[in-house]
Structure to design on (613 residues):
């Protein structure tokens, strides 16, 4: 609870600092407005749009000494192989102003049909990721209701089809792209031919050998789709031109806290706050509008866990708090982004048996652990060519201060070729260094499994329509 | 004396009438040799930008004062001239450069009926009873008709 207050104080301080910055002079890629509103008197009744992303990835990681693999060495969302093709995103949506002479009301809907954490976990062919209506009647307080991206981290909030890398930072993947626990305890299963070392003594699921994976052993048996940085709720937001090309924005939201699932099983609501100040710079459009943006955000919620492996529902509520600060600069030919994220509670520890991972004392007890992450990335749009070079360093410290504290460092080197503004190919090479770094004995087994984590290469083709 | 006063009064009145009447006449007449009327009646938002680009390009293609451009918006195209239209700054800029904008009164009445309130129209636009009639009048005056 004390940490909760610290989060809020840090956010308020950051917001005040930005407010002063904006007051002196306050505009660029404003995701709140780009995703939540339409151009007044100039929107379609129903604009059909979408994008397709297909990719090939190869992971060069080695098995552990006994031939077993852990999830970081396998490709998601299925986590059963080290190389292959995937249609990781295939989305189609419609947005606009249903009654075109009334600019005060607009809507946004998007359907996901690719193979990723949104669709794979529950075998869904398609899953609704966005369905919202915005009421623009009150000056300074637009109201957006429904399912949509929550105000937060730039990496999470930005439109994914303009994201400059194939994979998220480890921080965004582990701390922000939420994996929901089961409604009832999901135990570490009894050892079997496909789960040979899952027991209380080893405190682990897997590693699985290649033969076991091919025989049907699964790491990824998430009961729910990933949160996809979204929630179902109501958001009040707006952006204000404060002169000298500066724009300040805010958003306050409450939501179920259950990702893209339509329920509020714990009866509590997540709260979200977001502030940004942007200096608009000449050039660019839409999601690639040029500008310098400072932003800060916080998210506060609780999650209910069944913490015992029995037929009795022993529910316990845990806080799930996230906060962050960041800056983004884009004016071609250069782009620089930096973000810091702090997390308290409900730290994702593994892809399988989520309740067990969140509560199992032998393996992280992520329900009340802390973590932080940050990244710096930059891009260079090579003048007079269609090429873009990208580089990113990201680091995540998970279970901060505990015996099973992990540190995940990753360099991502990339190149993109833009066939046209709507179609591009992205090549990424990831250099990864993952370890349990507390020095405690518990790290020995973990590091034996993480030792072989090696680099990963990917090629992704994106077509927007 | 009374006769002189009447003559003076008539002369002044005539001058006043002429001075009031003159702008109305000049608003319809032009010395420009090149005259274009652009029609916008589409719902498609991209047409809004296109027609403004057309107007800009026409202004740029001729020496100052040698081209008259009027955009007539009616039907779904009237949205271009709504007071909150996203292209307002550009419309204002074009208006200051001499481009005229005509908003259809019939369309406005219809939209008012559907919306329950009258949409606010950009002050840079001049209301005309009927957009289609306005295009007809301008065509008779020698304007080249273009529908992008």
């Amino acid at each position: 609870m004390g940490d909760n207050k610290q989060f809020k104080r840090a956010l308020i301080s950051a917001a005040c600092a930005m407010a002063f910055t904006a007051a002196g002079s306050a505009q660029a890629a404003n995701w709140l407005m780009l995703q939540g509103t339409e151009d007044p008197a100039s929107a379609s009744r129903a604009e059909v749009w979408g994008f397709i992303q297909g990719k090939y990835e190869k992971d060069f990681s080695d098995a552990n000494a006994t031939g077993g693999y852990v999830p970081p060495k396998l490709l998601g969302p299925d986590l059963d192989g080290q190389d292959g093709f995937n249609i990781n995103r295939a989305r189609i949506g419609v947005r606009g102003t249903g009654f075109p002479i009334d600019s005060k009301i607009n809507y946004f809907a998007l359907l996901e049909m690719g193979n990723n954490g949104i669709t794979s976990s529950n075998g869904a062919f398609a899953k609704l990721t966005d369905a919202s209506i915005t009421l623009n009647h009150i000056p300074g307080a637009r109201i957006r209701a429904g399912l949509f991206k929550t105000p937060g981290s730039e990496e999470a909030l930005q439109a994914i089809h303009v994201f400059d890398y194939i994979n998220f930072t480890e921080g965004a993947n582990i701390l922000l792209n939420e994996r929901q626990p089961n409604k009832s305890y999901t135990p570490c299963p009894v050892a079997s031919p496909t789960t040979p070392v899952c027991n209380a003594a080893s405190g682990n699921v897997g590693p699985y050998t290649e033969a076991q994976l091919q025989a049907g052993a699964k790491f990824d048996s998430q009961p729910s789709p990933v949160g996809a940085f979204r929630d179902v709720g109501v958001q009040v937001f707006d952006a204000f031109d404060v002169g000298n090309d500066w724009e300040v924005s805010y958003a306050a939201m409450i939501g179920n806290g259950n990702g893209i699932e339509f329920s509020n099983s714990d009866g509590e609501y997540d709260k979200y706050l977001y502030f940004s100040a942007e200096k608009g710079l000449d050039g660019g459009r839409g999601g690639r509008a040029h500008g310098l943006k400072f932003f800060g955000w916080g998210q506060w919620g609780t999650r209910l866990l069944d913490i015992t492996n029995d037929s009795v529902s022993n529910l316990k509520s845990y806080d799930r708090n996230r906060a962050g600060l960041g800056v983004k600069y884009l004016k071609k030919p250069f782009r620089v982004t930096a973000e810091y994220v702090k997390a308290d509670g409900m730290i994702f520890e593994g892809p399988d048996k989520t309740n067990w991972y969140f509560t199992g004392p032998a393996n992280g007890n992520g329900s009340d652990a802390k973590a932080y992450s940050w990244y710096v990335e930059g891009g260079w749009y090579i003048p007079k060519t269609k090429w873009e070079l990208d580089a990113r360093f990201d680091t995540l410290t998970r279970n901060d201060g505990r015996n099973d504290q992990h540190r995940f460092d990753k360099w991502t080197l990339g190149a993109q070729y833009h066939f046209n503004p709507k179609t591009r190919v992205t090549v990424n090479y990831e250099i990864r260094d993952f370890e349990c770094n507390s020095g405690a004995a518990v790290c020995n087994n973990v590091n034996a499994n993480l030792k072989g984590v090696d680099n990963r290469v990917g090629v992704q083709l994106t077509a927007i329509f | 004396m009374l006769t002189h006063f009447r003559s003076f009064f008539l002369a002044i009145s005539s001058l006043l009438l002429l001075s009031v009447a003159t702008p109305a006449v000049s608003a319809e007449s032009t010395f420009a040799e090149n005259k274009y009327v652009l029609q916008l009646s589409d719902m498609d938002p991209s047409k809004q930008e296109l027609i403004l680009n057309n107007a800009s390009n026409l202004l740029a293609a001729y020496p100052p004062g040698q081209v008259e451009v009027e955009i007539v918006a009616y039907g779904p195209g009237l949205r271009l001239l709504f007071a909150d239209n996203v292209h307002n700054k550009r419309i204002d800029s074009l208006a200051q450069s001499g481009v005229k904008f005509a908003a259809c009164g019939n369309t406005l009445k219809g939209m008012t009926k559907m919306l329950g309130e009258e949409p606010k129209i950009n002050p840079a636009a001049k209301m005309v009873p009927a957009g289609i009639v306005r295009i007809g009048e301008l065509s008779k005056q020698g304007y080249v008709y273009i529908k992008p």
Summary: Strands of chain B lie at 34-40, 67-73, 100-104, 125-128, 144-146. The first strand of chain B starts at residue 34 and ends at 40. Chain B has two domains: 1-30, 33-146.
